[in-house]
Protein backbone atom coordinates (compact mmCIF):
# COMPACT_ATOMS: atom_id res chain seq x y z
CA UNK A 1 0.00 0.00 0.00
CA UNK A 2 2.77 2.45 0.84
CA UNK A 3 4.34 1.97 -2.58
CA UNK A 4 0.98 2.65 -4.22
CA UNK A 5 0.47 5.74 -2.06
CA UNK A 6 3.92 7.01 -3.05
CA UNK A 7 3.08 6.42 -6.72
CA UNK A 8 -0.32 8.10 -6.46
CA UNK A 9 1.31 11.06 -4.68
CA UNK A 10 3.60 11.42 -7.68
CA UNK A 11 0.65 11.33 -10.08
CA UNK A 12 1.28 7.76 -11.22
CA UNK A 13 -1.78 5.47 -11.33
CA UNK A 14 -1.37 2.35 -9.23
CA UNK A 15 -2.99 -0.93 -8.29
CA UNK A 16 -2.20 -2.55 -4.96
CA UNK A 17 -2.05 -6.34 -4.95
CA UNK A 18 -3.38 -7.77 -1.69
CA UNK A 19 -4.09 -11.24 -0.39
CA UNK A 20 -7.60 -12.59 -0.69
CA UNK A 21 -9.80 -11.30 2.14
CA UNK A 22 -7.71 -8.21 2.87
CA UNK A 23 -9.38 -5.65 0.62
CA UNK A 24 -11.14 -3.99 3.55
CA UNK A 25 -7.97 -3.58 5.58
CA UNK A 26 -6.10 -2.33 2.51
CA UNK A 27 -8.76 0.32 1.98
CA UNK A 28 -8.46 1.33 5.64
CA UNK A 29 -4.70 1.74 5.27
CA UNK A 30 -5.10 3.83 2.14
CA UNK A 31 -7.80 5.95 3.77
CA UNK A 32 -5.48 6.56 6.71
CA UNK A 33 -2.95 8.08 4.33
CA UNK A 34 -5.54 10.26 2.62
CA UNK A 35 -6.27 8.00 -0.37
CA UNK A 36 -9.79 6.61 -0.22
CA UNK A 37 -10.72 3.80 -2.62
CA UNK A 38 -7.29 2.99 -4.01
CA UNK A 39 -7.47 0.45 -6.84
CA UNK A 40 -6.91 -3.10 -5.62
CA UNK A 41 -6.27 -6.52 -7.11
CA UNK A 42 -6.51 -9.66 -5.01
CA UNK A 43 -4.46 -12.83 -5.17
CA UNK A 44 -6.10 -16.23 -4.92
CA UNK A 45 -5.48 -17.67 -1.48
CA UNK A 46 -2.45 -16.75 0.63
CA UNK A 47 0.83 -16.35 -1.24
CA UNK A 48 2.94 -17.94 1.52
CA UNK A 49 0.98 -21.21 1.30
CA UNK A 50 1.36 -21.80 -2.47
CA UNK A 51 4.07 -23.15 -4.67
CA UNK A 52 5.61 -20.77 -7.18
CA UNK A 53 3.84 -22.56 -10.04
CA UNK A 54 0.42 -22.43 -8.36
CA UNK A 55 0.84 -18.77 -7.48
CA UNK A 56 1.87 -17.93 -11.05
CA UNK A 57 -1.12 -19.79 -12.51
CA UNK A 58 -3.57 -18.15 -10.10
CA UNK A 59 -2.06 -14.74 -10.75
CA UNK A 60 -2.39 -15.08 -14.52
CA UNK A 61 -5.92 -16.46 -14.38
CA UNK A 62 -7.40 -14.09 -11.81
CA UNK A 63 -5.23 -11.23 -10.66
CA UNK A 64 -3.88 -9.85 -13.93
CA UNK A 65 -7.38 -8.99 -15.13
CA UNK A 66 -8.01 -7.08 -11.89
CA UNK A 67 -4.74 -5.16 -12.31
CA UNK A 68 -5.73 -4.14 -15.83
CA UNK A 69 -9.19 -3.17 -14.61
CA UNK A 70 -7.69 -1.08 -11.81
CA UNK A 71 -5.44 0.81 -14.21
CA UNK A 72 -8.21 1.36 -16.74
CA UNK A 73 -10.93 2.18 -14.24
CA UNK A 74 -13.17 -0.73 -15.24
CA UNK A 75 -13.07 -2.65 -11.94
CA UNK A 76 -16.22 -2.82 -9.89
CA UNK A 77 -16.26 -0.99 -6.57
CA UNK A 78 -13.74 -2.51 -4.22
CA UNK A 79 -14.65 -4.53 -1.16
CA UNK A 80 -15.71 -2.48 1.78
CA UNK A 81 -16.77 0.46 -0.38
CA UNK A 82 -20.50 -0.10 -0.15
CA UNK A 83 -22.31 2.42 1.96
CA UNK A 84 -23.80 1.05 5.14
CA UNK A 85 -26.97 2.27 6.82
CA UNK A 86 -26.17 3.53 10.29
CA UNK A 87 -28.42 5.13 12.87
CA UNK A 88 -28.07 8.86 13.35
CA UNK A 89 -26.67 10.20 16.61
CA UNK A 90 -30.04 10.78 18.34
CA UNK A 91 -31.99 8.08 16.56
CA UNK A 92 -33.51 5.36 18.74
CA UNK A 93 -31.94 2.24 17.24
CA UNK A 94 -33.42 -0.36 19.60
CA UNK A 95 -36.35 -0.43 22.03
CA UNK A 96 -37.13 -2.98 24.72
CA UNK A 97 -35.73 -4.43 27.91
CA UNK A 98 -32.04 -4.42 28.74
CA UNK A 99 -31.94 -8.02 27.53
CA UNK A 100 -33.56 -7.02 24.23
CA UNK A 101 -31.10 -4.17 23.77
CA UNK A 102 -28.05 -6.31 24.49
CA UNK A 103 -29.29 -9.04 22.15
CA UNK A 104 -29.79 -6.50 19.35
CA UNK A 105 -26.42 -4.87 19.96
CA UNK A 106 -24.67 -8.27 19.86
CA UNK A 107 -26.45 -9.17 16.64
CA UNK A 108 -25.37 -5.92 15.01
CA UNK A 109 -21.77 -6.24 16.18
CA UNK A 110 -21.87 -3.15 18.40
CA UNK A 111 -20.50 -4.87 21.51
CA UNK A 112 -17.37 -6.72 22.54
CA UNK A 113 -19.46 -9.76 23.42
CA UNK A 114 -20.11 -8.64 26.98
CA UNK A 115 -23.27 -6.97 28.20
CA UNK A 116 -23.30 -3.19 27.85
CA UNK A 117 -25.14 -0.41 29.59
CA UNK A 118 -27.73 0.86 27.07
CA UNK A 119 -26.52 4.25 25.80
CA UNK A 120 -29.80 6.12 26.04
CA UNK A 121 -29.85 9.79 25.17
CA UNK A 122 -30.48 10.60 28.83
CA UNK A 123 -27.48 8.54 29.98
CA UNK A 124 -25.13 10.04 27.42
CA UNK A 125 -26.37 13.57 28.24
CA UNK A 126 -25.74 12.91 31.93
CA UNK A 127 -22.27 11.54 31.19
CA UNK A 128 -21.26 14.68 29.27
CA UNK A 129 -23.21 17.30 31.22
CA UNK A 130 -20.60 18.41 33.76
CA UNK A 131 -17.75 18.54 31.23
CA UNK A 132 -18.92 21.65 29.39
CA UNK A 133 -18.07 19.88 26.12
CA UNK A 134 -20.10 20.55 22.99
CA UNK A 135 -21.53 17.08 22.23
CA UNK A 136 -21.45 17.71 18.49
CA UNK A 137 -17.88 18.97 18.29
CA UNK A 138 -15.91 16.99 15.71
CA UNK A 139 -12.40 16.17 16.91
CA UNK A 140 -11.39 14.65 13.61
CA UNK A 141 -12.18 11.87 11.16
CA UNK A 142 -11.39 8.21 11.84
CA UNK A 143 -8.78 7.41 9.18
CA UNK A 144 -9.94 3.81 8.77
CA UNK A 145 -13.71 4.32 8.47
CA UNK A 146 -14.19 7.96 7.48
CA UNK A 147 -16.59 8.47 10.41
CA UNK A 148 -16.52 11.65 12.48
CA UNK A 149 -14.95 11.36 15.92
CA UNK A 150 -17.31 13.41 18.08
CA UNK A 151 -17.72 14.10 21.77
CA UNK A 152 -21.13 12.46 21.51
CA UNK A 153 -19.82 9.19 20.05
CA UNK A 154 -17.10 9.13 22.71
CA UNK A 155 -19.83 9.49 25.33
CA UNK A 156 -22.02 6.79 23.77
CA UNK A 157 -19.27 4.20 23.90
CA UNK A 158 -18.20 5.37 27.37
CA UNK A 159 -21.68 4.72 28.72
CA UNK A 160 -21.68 1.29 27.06
CA UNK A 161 -18.32 0.47 28.65
CA UNK A 162 -19.44 1.56 32.12
CA UNK A 163 -17.17 4.60 32.38
CA UNK A 164 -18.03 7.47 34.73
CA UNK A 165 -17.93 11.19 33.81
CA UNK A 166 -14.58 11.65 35.57
CA UNK A 167 -13.03 9.38 32.93
CA UNK A 168 -14.00 11.64 30.00
CA UNK A 169 -10.76 13.70 29.94
CA UNK A 170 -8.77 10.47 29.66
CA UNK A 171 -11.01 9.22 26.85
CA UNK A 172 -10.56 12.50 24.99
CA UNK A 173 -6.77 12.09 25.17
CA UNK A 174 -7.08 8.52 23.91
CA UNK A 175 -9.20 9.77 21.01
CA UNK A 176 -6.46 12.31 20.25
CA UNK A 177 -3.98 9.46 20.00
CA UNK A 178 -6.23 7.54 17.62
CA UNK A 179 -6.47 10.63 15.42
CA UNK A 180 -2.74 11.33 15.45
CA UNK A 181 -1.17 10.21 12.12
CA UNK A 182 1.98 9.28 14.04
CA UNK A 183 0.05 6.57 15.88
CA UNK A 184 -1.44 5.03 12.74
CA UNK A 185 -4.85 3.83 13.97
CA UNK A 186 -5.63 2.57 10.47
CA UNK A 187 -3.30 -0.38 11.19
CA UNK A 188 -5.34 -1.55 14.19
CA UNK A 189 -6.59 -4.65 12.38
CA UNK A 190 -3.36 -6.12 11.05
CA UNK A 191 -2.89 -9.87 11.03
CA UNK A 192 -0.62 -10.25 14.04
CA UNK A 193 -3.42 -9.12 16.32
CA UNK A 194 -1.48 -6.52 18.27
CA UNK A 195 -3.71 -4.59 20.65
CA UNK A 196 -3.20 -1.18 22.16
CA UNK A 197 -1.98 -0.74 25.71
CA UNK A 198 -2.88 2.51 27.45
CA UNK A 199 -0.38 3.61 30.11
CA UNK A 200 -1.65 6.29 32.49
CA UNK A 201 1.03 8.47 34.11
CA UNK A 202 0.74 11.17 36.76
CA UNK A 203 -1.11 11.68 40.04
CA UNK A 204 -4.56 11.38 38.44
CA UNK A 205 -4.27 7.60 38.40
CA UNK A 206 -4.41 7.37 42.17
CA UNK A 207 -6.91 10.21 42.49
CA UNK A 208 -9.40 8.48 40.18
CA UNK A 209 -9.03 5.03 41.71
CA UNK A 210 -6.93 3.35 39.04
CA UNK A 211 -5.04 0.30 40.28
CA UNK A 212 -1.27 0.65 39.92
CA UNK A 213 -0.33 -1.96 42.52
CA UNK A 214 -0.92 -5.68 42.99
CA UNK A 215 -2.82 -7.19 40.08
CA UNK A 216 -1.99 -4.37 37.66
CA UNK A 217 -3.21 -5.32 34.17
CA UNK A 218 -5.87 -7.66 35.57
CA UNK A 219 -9.59 -6.95 35.23
CA UNK A 220 -11.31 -6.13 38.48
CA UNK A 221 -10.66 -2.45 39.13
CA UNK A 222 -13.47 -0.42 37.60
CA UNK A 223 -11.40 2.51 36.29
CA UNK A 224 -8.71 0.41 34.59
CA UNK A 225 -11.21 -2.04 33.12
CA UNK A 226 -13.91 0.33 31.88
CA UNK A 227 -11.50 2.81 30.27
CA UNK A 228 -9.61 -0.02 28.57
CA UNK A 229 -12.91 -1.46 27.37
CA UNK A 230 -13.94 1.90 25.90
CA UNK A 231 -10.98 1.74 23.53
CA UNK A 232 -11.98 -1.61 22.05
CA UNK A 233 -15.61 -0.52 21.71
CA UNK A 234 -14.60 2.74 20.03
CA UNK A 235 -12.30 0.94 17.61
CA UNK A 236 -15.22 -1.34 16.68
CA UNK A 237 -18.05 1.15 16.48
CA UNK A 238 -16.37 4.28 15.12
CA UNK A 239 -13.12 3.12 13.52
CA UNK A 240 -14.70 0.02 11.97
CA UNK A 241 -12.46 -2.72 13.32
CA UNK A 242 -14.74 -5.74 13.30
CA UNK A 243 -13.94 -9.17 11.92
CA UNK A 244 -16.33 -8.74 8.99
CA UNK A 245 -14.81 -5.38 8.03
CA UNK A 246 -11.31 -4.18 8.91
CA UNK A 247 -10.04 -6.45 11.69
CA UNK A 248 -7.93 -9.21 10.12
CA UNK A 249 -6.14 -10.42 13.25
CA UNK A 250 -5.23 -14.08 12.96
CA UNK A 251 -5.16 -14.39 16.74
CA UNK A 252 -6.48 -11.42 18.68
CA UNK A 253 -5.22 -10.38 22.08
CA UNK A 254 -7.74 -9.89 24.83
CA UNK A 255 -8.67 -6.25 25.41
CA UNK A 256 -6.11 -4.74 27.74
CA UNK A 257 -7.05 -2.85 30.86
CA UNK A 258 -5.29 0.46 31.46
CA UNK A 259 -1.84 0.16 33.03
CA UNK A 260 -1.50 2.94 35.60
CA UNK A 261 2.02 3.82 36.68
CA UNK A 262 2.93 4.02 40.37
CA UNK A 263 3.34 7.80 40.52
CA UNK A 264 4.31 7.82 44.20
CA UNK A 265 7.09 5.28 43.66
CA UNK A 266 8.43 7.17 40.64
CA UNK A 267 8.44 10.43 42.59
CA UNK A 268 10.16 8.79 45.55
CA UNK A 269 13.03 7.35 43.49
CA UNK A 270 13.29 10.39 41.23
CA UNK A 271 12.57 8.65 37.95
CA UNK A 272 10.53 10.19 35.11
CA UNK A 273 7.27 8.56 34.06
CA UNK A 274 6.89 6.75 30.76
CA UNK A 275 4.93 9.75 29.44
CA UNK A 276 7.79 12.09 30.38
CA UNK A 277 10.24 9.81 28.57
CA UNK A 278 8.00 10.16 25.52
CA UNK A 279 7.82 13.96 25.68
CA UNK A 280 5.23 14.94 28.30
CA UNK A 281 6.08 17.70 30.77
CA UNK A 282 7.39 16.76 34.21
CA UNK A 283 4.62 15.61 36.55
CA UNK A 284 1.93 15.79 33.88
CA UNK A 285 -1.15 13.62 33.82
CA UNK A 286 -0.83 11.92 30.47
CA UNK A 287 -1.58 8.75 28.58
CA UNK A 288 0.83 6.86 26.34
CA UNK A 289 -0.42 4.33 23.82
CA UNK A 290 1.17 1.77 21.55
CA UNK A 291 0.09 -1.45 19.93
CA UNK A 292 1.80 -4.40 21.58
CA UNK A 293 2.19 -7.86 20.06
CA UNK A 294 3.04 -10.12 22.95
CA UNK A 295 4.28 -10.15 26.50
CA UNK A 296 6.49 -12.24 28.78
CA UNK A 297 6.19 -12.41 32.56
CA UNK A 298 9.64 -12.27 34.15
CA UNK A 299 8.88 -13.90 37.47
CA UNK A 300 10.87 -14.03 40.69
CA UNK A 301 13.77 -11.85 39.63
CA UNK A 302 16.55 -12.83 42.03
CA UNK A 303 19.29 -10.54 43.30
CA UNK A 304 19.91 -7.48 45.43
CA UNK A 305 22.10 -5.52 43.00
CA UNK A 306 21.64 -4.18 39.47
CA UNK A 307 24.39 -6.50 38.22
CA UNK A 308 22.50 -9.51 39.55
CA UNK A 309 19.04 -8.69 38.21
CA UNK A 310 19.89 -7.08 34.85
CA UNK A 311 20.75 -10.34 32.99
CA UNK A 312 17.37 -11.90 33.75
CA UNK A 313 15.48 -8.75 32.81
CA UNK A 314 17.46 -8.39 29.58
CA UNK A 315 16.79 -12.03 28.74
CA UNK A 316 13.06 -11.45 29.23
CA UNK A 317 13.08 -8.52 26.81
CA UNK A 318 15.06 -10.54 24.27
CA UNK A 319 12.73 -13.56 24.57
CA UNK A 320 9.73 -11.36 23.83
CA UNK A 321 11.16 -10.10 20.53
CA UNK A 322 10.66 -12.20 17.40
CA UNK A 323 9.42 -11.15 13.93
CA UNK A 324 8.92 -7.70 15.50
CA UNK A 325 12.64 -7.19 14.89
CA UNK A 326 11.67 -6.28 11.34
CA UNK A 327 10.82 -2.91 12.92
CA UNK A 328 14.52 -2.46 13.69
CA UNK A 329 15.18 -2.77 10.00
CA UNK A 330 12.61 -3.64 7.34
CA UNK A 331 8.97 -2.84 8.06
CA UNK A 332 10.11 0.18 10.05
CA UNK A 333 13.64 1.51 10.47
CA UNK A 334 14.66 2.12 14.10
CA UNK A 335 11.03 1.79 15.22
CA UNK A 336 11.06 -1.11 17.68
CA UNK A 337 10.36 0.04 21.24
CA UNK A 338 9.72 -2.78 23.72
CA UNK A 339 8.25 -1.94 27.11
CA UNK A 340 9.56 -3.33 30.40
CA UNK A 341 7.20 -2.90 33.36
CA UNK A 342 9.18 -3.12 36.60
CA UNK A 343 7.57 -3.74 39.96
CA UNK A 344 8.47 -0.91 42.38
CA UNK A 345 10.86 -3.10 44.36
CA UNK A 346 12.94 -3.78 41.25
CA UNK A 347 12.95 -0.10 40.30
CA UNK A 348 14.11 0.77 43.83
CA UNK A 349 16.93 -1.78 43.57
CA UNK A 350 18.33 0.20 40.67
CA UNK A 351 17.59 3.62 42.17
CA UNK A 352 19.03 2.73 45.58
CA UNK A 353 22.27 1.94 43.81
CA UNK A 354 22.37 5.42 42.32
CA UNK A 355 21.06 4.50 38.87
CA UNK A 356 18.81 6.77 36.83
CA UNK A 357 16.34 5.32 34.38
CA UNK A 358 18.77 6.17 31.57
CA UNK A 359 21.46 4.18 33.39
CA UNK A 360 19.13 1.20 33.57
CA UNK A 361 18.38 1.49 29.85
CA UNK A 362 22.12 1.44 29.15
CA UNK A 363 22.54 -1.64 31.31
CA UNK A 364 19.61 -3.49 29.75
CA UNK A 365 20.89 -2.61 26.28
CA UNK A 366 23.95 -4.71 27.07
CA UNK A 367 21.88 -7.67 28.25
CA UNK A 368 18.84 -7.69 25.93
CA UNK A 369 20.72 -9.46 23.15
CA UNK A 370 20.42 -12.50 20.91
CA UNK A 371 22.86 -14.28 18.54
CA UNK A 372 23.38 -12.43 15.27
CA UNK A 373 22.36 -15.52 13.32
CA UNK A 374 19.03 -15.63 15.18
CA UNK A 375 18.44 -11.92 14.50
CA UNK A 376 19.14 -12.45 10.79
CA UNK A 377 16.77 -15.43 10.73
CA UNK A 378 14.01 -13.38 12.36
CA UNK A 379 14.22 -10.59 9.78
CA UNK A 380 14.98 -12.75 6.75
CA UNK A 381 15.23 -16.52 6.68
CA UNK A 382 12.11 -17.15 8.76
CA UNK A 383 9.99 -14.34 7.31
CA UNK A 384 9.47 -12.57 4.02
CA UNK A 385 8.96 -9.15 5.58
CA UNK A 386 12.42 -7.72 4.88
CA UNK A 387 13.50 -7.49 1.26
CA UNK A 388 16.88 -8.88 0.25
CA UNK A 389 17.57 -10.94 3.38
CA UNK A 390 20.82 -9.10 3.91
CA UNK A 391 23.11 -9.94 6.82
CA UNK A 392 23.67 -7.53 9.66
CA UNK A 393 27.17 -6.94 8.30
CA UNK A 394 25.60 -5.88 5.01
CA UNK A 395 23.13 -3.57 6.77
CA UNK A 396 25.86 -1.91 8.83
CA UNK A 397 28.01 -1.47 5.69
CA UNK A 398 25.04 0.26 4.04
CA UNK A 399 24.63 2.49 7.14
CA UNK A 400 21.14 1.13 7.74
CA UNK A 401 21.70 -0.06 11.32
CA UNK A 402 24.26 1.02 13.96
CA UNK A 403 27.76 -0.43 14.08
CA UNK A 404 26.96 -2.32 17.30
CA UNK A 405 25.38 -4.96 15.05
CA UNK A 406 28.69 -5.71 13.32
CA UNK A 407 31.35 -5.72 16.02
CA UNK A 408 32.65 -8.98 14.53
CA UNK A 409 31.76 -11.47 11.81
CA UNK A 410 31.05 -14.26 14.29
CA UNK A 411 27.49 -15.50 13.62
CA UNK A 412 27.22 -16.38 17.32
CA UNK A 413 28.05 -12.86 18.54
CA UNK A 414 25.34 -11.24 20.63
CA UNK A 415 23.57 -8.23 19.13
CA UNK A 416 20.93 -5.95 20.71
CA UNK A 417 17.23 -6.18 19.91
CA UNK A 418 16.96 -2.38 19.65
CA UNK A 419 19.13 0.19 17.96
CA UNK A 420 19.90 2.28 21.06
CA UNK A 421 19.28 2.17 24.82
CA UNK A 422 16.50 4.76 24.90
CA UNK A 423 14.40 2.49 22.70
CA UNK A 424 13.97 0.23 25.75
CA UNK A 425 11.02 1.85 27.49
CA UNK A 426 10.46 1.39 31.23
CA UNK A 427 7.31 1.82 33.34
CA UNK A 428 6.85 1.16 37.05
CA UNK A 429 3.73 -0.58 38.38
CA UNK A 430 2.58 -3.73 40.13
CA UNK A 431 2.82 -5.28 43.57
CA UNK A 432 5.42 -3.28 45.53
CA UNK A 433 6.45 -6.40 47.45
CA UNK A 434 7.13 -8.73 44.52
CA UNK A 435 10.24 -8.93 42.34
CA UNK A 436 8.44 -9.50 39.04
CA UNK A 437 8.52 -7.70 35.71
CA UNK A 438 6.60 -7.82 32.44
CA UNK A 439 8.23 -7.39 29.01
CA UNK A 440 6.17 -6.43 25.94
CA UNK A 441 7.18 -6.32 22.29
CA UNK A 442 5.60 -3.58 20.20
CA UNK A 443 4.32 -3.32 16.66
CA UNK A 444 6.50 -0.41 15.54
CA UNK A 445 4.83 1.97 13.09
CA UNK A 446 1.63 -0.11 13.20
CA UNK A 447 0.80 1.62 16.47
CA UNK A 448 3.73 3.85 17.32
CA UNK A 449 4.16 5.03 20.93
CA UNK A 450 2.18 8.26 21.19
CA UNK A 451 1.64 10.44 24.27
CA UNK A 452 -1.06 13.03 25.00
CA UNK A 453 -1.49 15.23 28.07
CA UNK A 454 -4.85 14.95 29.86
CA UNK A 455 -6.77 18.18 30.37
CA UNK A 456 -9.02 17.89 33.43
CA UNK A 457 -10.28 21.48 33.22
CA UNK A 458 -13.95 21.86 32.22
CA UNK A 459 -14.47 22.92 28.64
CA UNK A 460 -15.84 26.35 27.80
CA UNK A 461 -17.45 25.14 24.58
CA UNK A 462 -20.96 25.80 25.84
CA UNK A 463 -20.24 28.97 27.80
CA UNK A 464 -22.08 31.98 26.41
CA UNK A 465 -19.89 35.06 26.24
CA UNK A 466 -21.88 38.23 26.86
CA UNK A 467 -20.28 41.22 25.12
CA UNK A 468 -19.30 44.06 27.40
CA UNK A 469 -21.30 47.27 26.86
CA UNK A 470 -19.53 50.54 27.63
C-alpha-based Rg, rounded: 24 Å
Distance between the termini: 61 Å
Main sheet specs:
7 strands, mixed
Proportion in helices? 25-40%
Mean pLDDT: 90
Tell me the series of helices and strands, N- to C-terminal: HEHEHHHEEHHEHHEHHEHEHHEHHEEEE
Number of helices: 16
Residue share in β-strands: 5-15%
DSSP E strands, number: 13
Structural shape = globular
The computed structural class is alpha/beta
Residue stretches low in confidence (pLDDT < 50, at least 5 long) are: 77-83
Protein described:
The protein is globular. The chain has helices spanning 2-9, 23-32, 52-72, 98-107, 121-129, 151-161, 168-179, 204-207, 222-237, 263-269, 274-277, 306-320, 344-351, 357-367, 372-381, 392-397; strands at residues 16-18, 40-42, 138-141, 148-150, 195-201, 259-260, 286-298, 339-342, 369-371, 414-416, 425-428, 437-442, 450-453. It contains 16 helices and 13 strands. It has a domain at 2-72. The longest helix has 21 residues, at 52-72. Helix 6 packs across helix 9 (222-237) and helix 12 (306-320) crosses helix 14 (357-367). With 470 residues, it is α/β, with parallel strands linked by helices.
